[in-house]
Amino acid sequence: MSLDLKSLELFIRVAACGAIGKAGAAFGLSPTAATQRIQALEKSVGAQLLHRSTRSVSLSSDGEVFLAHAKRILAGVEDALADVQNEPQAVRGTLRIAGSASFGRKHIAPYMAEFLDRHPAVKLELHLTDAVVDIVEDGFDLAVRLGSLAPSSLKAKRIGSSPRIVVAAPTYIERFGRPEHPDDLQTHNCLARGGLRSWSLRGVDGRQIEASIAGNFSCNFSEAITEAVLSGLGIATKCKWEIDAHLNAGRLTTLLDDYTVMPEWDVFAVRSPSRIQPTRIRAFVAFLEETYKSVPALQKSDG
What is this structure's pTM? Predict the structure, then answer.
């Protein structure tokens, strides 16, 4: 099977605009010539990539799968050319990034203007969602993920930390007191995501304690837990980056400072297992790693 790069470019354009004639015109092709190129591509692939009607075309299920691969093939060619031509360090092309909604709003999106100022030949597509995306199947170059990563074939680089701490509002502490030991949490209103029934805490002596918790409010959305804690409803464990501004303003205060919430979380840049890492991906990962070093909430405390 042989693939024509120009036909791949045409197919990607057809998928974007939904019309073979309109896509062909962008390449100086007549509607007939463009149609013939697409038909030849389908023959080479051995699958129908498009559903055709009198007014428009749409991707078939095979076409949706092939589209992601076609984009990666062209991106790889662009990077190969950049590496061997006059500008070996050129950073160009489309960069598709996935990240969690809350983290992405606070610690990806605000820095993108600076990144794009540094690399004006890059087009960046940022997809924020609380769902875990399949970066290979969904055609993403990179995902920024938090937590403890499960074993997989994906390649991951740690670019920051996501320390978690126990917090409450001063109004809650005034009413119900301050827990001095993890065992004291049993007598407090603890706010957790889902059906969580305990928090793991590690003391300065290295011993880990499973602290039983119970409360009258739980939610699967982290930001709702934050709002509940701010209202004085109870105690919660939060990532420091989520509530750093509230701590600095005195709206929240830390509890059980001699204990670390386990497991410890980090921030990772995760990509496909391919040995080829395009220049634009390397540049983006290096930029985030550099940026996060100056964000205290994304670094472990000295203690």
Answer: 0.70
